[in-house]
Write the structure tokens for this entry.
Amino acid sequence: MGIISWITLGLLAGAIAKLLLPGRDPGGLIGTVAIGIAGALIGGWLSEIFFDKTVETHFFDLTTWGAAIGGALVLLIGYRILFGHSRN
């Protein structure tokens, strides 16, 4: 159940982060989703370390979701800053 919880949290939090940051991303849909998932996983992992909220037992906890969405937002913003310039 652990890895499935992490993947599910990553997918949903990454999608929510993308909804909060609309617009075109340099990597397209696949790249954006991958960055969102990675950020959500990092945020969820940090939530587990600092707030002692494991994804397996606290999947519906707002702290876990806030950390996962926050991590996804940070990575998506960083991705846009680093690679968002146009090549025209």
